[in-house]
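quick one, 229 residues, struct below
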Amino acid sequence: MTTSTAPAVGKMDAVLQMTRDHKAVGRPRKGEMRETLLQLAEEAALEKSFANISLDELAAAAGISKSGFLYHFKSKNDLGLALVQRCTERQMTMLDNMFLRADDLHNDPLHSYLIAIKLFSEMIENDASFNHGFLVNAYTFQDQYHIKGIREIGLGLLERNRGGIIARLKRIAKVYPPREDVDIIALAEMTLSIVEGGMIISALLDDRTYLPRQLDVYRNLIARSFSQP
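---
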C-alpha cells in the first residue's frame, strides 16, 4: 500500500479523483450528506492518512461549500471522532455477526472458536470493507489520539475484544483442560497482537493473504493447546 501526498488545492486531487465514480445523488438531505462526507473522508484517510485530509477538498468533492461542510462537522477533530465511531461500529457489527454464525454452526466452545477464526480469516481475505475500516481507525488514532473521545473509543474497542476472547477461552478451558499451563489472558492478548499487527503488515505489503496465514497458525495453536476429552 502506498501513501500519496496531497497536491495543492485547485489541482486534480486524490479525493476528487476517487469521487468521480460516486453516483450523482442530487442534493442529499442532512443525514445523507453527512454519510457522504464520512465516506469521502474514509477513502481519503486510506489514500493519504487522516492528517493530510483537507476539509476544503472534501467539501469540493461533495459539491458543497466549506461552510456547508462545517454545518455537518464543526471541525476536523469532530470529523475524526465521527469517522472513528463509524468504522468502529461497523467492525463490531461484523465481528458480532461472525461469532454468532460460528456459534450457530457448532455449540462446542472449542470448535465454535476455531470456526470463528476461520470465518474471520476468510473475511479478512475477501471483504475489503473490514480491512479498510481497521486501517482508517489505525490512521485516525495515530493522528488524532489526543482528541477527547477518540482515545476512549480505541480503548473501549480493545477492552471489548479482549474481554470477549478471554471469556471464550475460559469456556474452552472448562471443557478442554489445557495440555500445559496456559495463561488465558496472555493468549487472548496475543490474539489481538496478531490481528492488529497483521493488518498493518498486510497493508504495508499489499498482501491480503498475510494475516490469514498467521491466523491459520494461531488456529492450529489453539487446537493443540487444549486437550480433547
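Residues 81-225 form a domain with the Tetracycline Repressor; domain 2 fold (CATH 1.10.357.10).
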